[in-house]
Amino acid sequence: MTQPVLAVRDLSTHFFTDDGEVKAVRGVSFEVMPGETVGIVGESGCGKSVTAMSLLGLVQRPGKVVHGEIMFKGQDLLKLSNEELRHIRGRDIAMIFQDPLSSLNPVLRIGFQIDEAMRAHDKIPKEDISHRGIDLLKQVRVPDAAHRIKDFPHQFSGGMRQRAMIAMGLSNKPDLLIADEPTTALDVTVQAQILELLRDLNEQTGAAIILITHNLGIVAGLCKRVLVMYAGEIVEEGPVEQIFESPQHPYTWSLLRSVPRIDSNRQDRLLSIEGLPPDLIDLPVGCKFNPRCPFRIERCFSEPPVIEDVAHAQRAACWVTMTRAYDEMGAANITDTSPGAASGVHPQGRRPAADLAVAPAETLSD
Ligand SMILES: Nc1ncnc2c1ncn2[C@@H]1O[C@H](COP(=O)(O)OP(=O)(O)O)[C@@H](O)[C@H]1O
Ligand code: SF4
Ligand SMILES: [Mg+2]
Questions:
Q1: pTM, whole model, 2 decimals?
Q2: CA of residue 181 to ligand 3 center, whole Å
Q3: According to the model, what pLDDT value does residue 103 have?
Q4: Which CATH homologous superfamily contains domain 6-223?
Q5: Which ligand sits nearest to residue 277's alpha carbon?
Q6: pLDDT value for 360
Q7: Alpha helices in the chain (DSSP H)
Q8: Is the CB of 296 under 6 A from ligand 2?
Q9: How far is the CA of 227 from the centre of ligand 3 (A)?
C-alpha cells in the first residue's frame, strides 16, 4: 500500500504569552499522499499558518510545538535537530508564502537566488544548476526567461515574483510543496494563472501540494481534498467536491454560504458568519463553534465533539451534523443564522446576544 508522504498526528502548538497560553493548534491530525493536493481552509486566525510553520520547525518563541508527531517519509520531523530540519526544508519540503517580496532578497538577482536554493542542498548536480534556473523560470511561465533571470526582484511584477518563488520552491524537486495564501496579494486574473500553474506543476512533477487559504473558491480550483480548520482544530475533512456538495459541519456550511459561487442560484443570499472566532486563551467549553452555531444543542456546551466518519472519506466533528440540521431544523430554508436560531437552544443563564463577540450596549455600561 502507498505510504503517505506526510502524516501529522495530534499536533498541538501553543504560544506562551504574557496574557496566557494561546492554544493556536490543538490535536491536528491529517495525512497527505504522494502527489496529492490538499487544501487547508478557515477564517483568519484559525491556525493554518501555525500548522504549516510547525511542520517545518519554523515556529518562533513564545510559540512551541507541545505535542504530536510529524512523519515525513518515515521520519518524525519533531525529533530532528535544527540542522537536519534545515536540510529537509527547501530540499524535500518547499514552502511559498503570501508575500514573495519578503522571501526574496532585494539586492540579489532572481537567477542567483534560484541557483542558491539549489546550491544550499546537494540534490541537483552542480553542472546542472545554471541551466536548470532558466528551465525552471520557463516551467513557471516567466516570459523571456533567459533574460529575466538576470533581473532583480523589484523588476518583477507581483505575479512574476510569485512564479519565481514557485520556481525556487521546485528547484530541488521537493516531494511536498506548502503554499500559504500564495495568491492572496494578487489580483483575480493573476490568482487564476498561479493556480493553473500549480495544478500543472503538480501533474508534471508529482509533488504533493498543501494549499493554505481562507478562500474556499481557491481550494476548489486546485485541491482534491480539503481540511477545514476552526479555532486551531480540524473540524471537517473530505474530498473537495463532496464537501462542497454536502458539508456536514455547520462551520463548513457557513463558510460555503459566505463564498460567492459561480454555479449558485441567483436567489441565494450570501450570508456571513455571525460573531468572531473564540479567544484561543480562553476557549469555550464543549464545541468551540457553539457561540456562533445556529444548530447547537445542549450537548454542544458540555462535550467537545469527536471527529468521526460522516460519509465515505468524509469526517466531521459535530454532535448534530448538517444532515440532521436539514431533516430536523429546516436548515435548507433558514435565513436567520444567528447562534441557536435554528435549534432554539440558548443555554440557561445566557441571553442570545451574550453569545456574540460584540457585547450589547447595556452590558458595556455595567
Ligand atoms: N507570535 C505569536 N504570538 C502569539 N500568538 C500567536 C502568534 N502567532 C500566531 N498566534 C496565534 O495563533 C493563531 C493562529 O494563527 P495563524 O496560524 O497565523 O492563523 P491563520 O489561520 O490566519 O494562518 C492566531 O489567532 C494567534 O492567536
Ligand atoms: S451543532 Fe454543536 S457540535 Fe455541531 S458545530 Fe454546532 S455547536 Fe458544534
Ligand atoms: Mg495565515
A1: 0.92
A2: 7
A3: 85
A4: P-loop containing nucleotide triphosphate hydrolases (3.40.50.300)
A5: 1
A6: 38
A7: 48-55, 82-88, 100-103, 110-119, 126-139, 145-148, 158-170, 188-205, 216-222, 240-245, 250-257, 321-329, 361-364
A8: yes
A9: 14
